[in-house]
Design goal:
Blueprint: H1 3-6, H2 8-25, E1 34-38, H3 44-52, E2 57-60, H4 63-70, H5 73-76, E3 81-84, H6 93-99, E4 102-106, H7 109-122, E5 127-131, H8 145-157, E6 165-167, H9 177-189, E7 194-196, H10 203-208, E8 213-216, H11 218-221
Parallel strand pairs: 1-2, 1-8, 2-3, 3-4, 4-5, 5-6, 6-7
Helix pairs in contact: 6-7
């Protein structure tokens, strides 16, 4: 077993402890927080090791990559919970609703329509999160905060969807706290129970500011391994 693999168990235990401490600081318990292990672009041996620790919630960025990695494992681990945390193209909606337990990147009316049609055709109902572009960055997906309330209303009334939460990725060069607090406020005033915020560098802060879901990759698995150039 490589040094990187052997240290995953220690890191996993440490992250769980930190999640529990942050949850208690906000009047909750460890069990109230969903810990998504971000497995995208991670080697299979590292993912297998996390599975061996009993963890079952994983996040992937792309539909095809998730199908390749988890297709066989879905039968091996019936309690597996897969979350799509990356952008979704409308032509992948049907595959996404069939494969994922949750889609965290609903960010435009066209995608809402596509997901509604796919869910009706497949009878699959993954949890849906609205992605909010809290920093209003041009290079990032997501609904602007000023349009969030109206978009959530449209998703519910026009497309018959029932979103469960909101998600954001704060700007890297700004303090994350205001973004986490804003996201929690948007969720609260729209009656959404779940807030997906916080990654490896700031998940404790996110929990203290209301996050119910955190997405942790490098702090658990180690740095991503870049694919060999073809």
């Amino acid at each position: 077993m490589s040094k990187e693999i052997s240290s995953i168990g220690e890191r996993y235990s440490d992250i769980c402890t930190r999640i529990g401490t942050a949850a208690e600081a906000s009047g909750r318990k460890f069990e109230d927080i969903t810990f998504t292990a971000v497995s995208k672009v991670q080697p299979d041996d590292r993912v297998e090791h996390v599975l061996s620790l009993g963890h079952r919630v994983f996040g992937e960025n792309r539909v095809q990559e998730a199908q390749d990695r988890w297709g066989r494992r879905r039968h091996q681990y019936p309690d597996l919970h897969l979350r799509l945390i990356g952008p979704l193209q409308t032509n992948k909606s049907k595959d996404a609703v069939r494969f994922f337990n949750a889609i965290e990147s609903l960010d435009r009316p066209k995608l809402a329509r596509s997901l509604a049609e796919a869910m009706e055709k497949t009878a699959c109902e993954p949890e849906l999160f609205i992605q909010i572009n809290t920093g209003e960055e041009d290079q990032k997906s997501g609904i602007s905060p000023s349009q969030a309330d109206s978009f959530i209303k449209t998703v519910r009334n026009d497309y018959g969807l029932s979103p469960k939460g909101v998600m954001c990725i704060p700007p890297t060069r700004e303090p994350a706290a205001p973004h986490f607090a804003l996201l929690a406020k948007i969720a609260e005033r729209n009656g959404l129970p779940f807030v997906s915020a916080g990654m490896s560098s700031d998940f404790e802060l996110a929990i203290r500011l209301g996050a119910t879901h955190v997405r942790i990759g490098s702090s658990l698995f180690g740095e991503r391994v870049k694919p060999d150039p073809k």
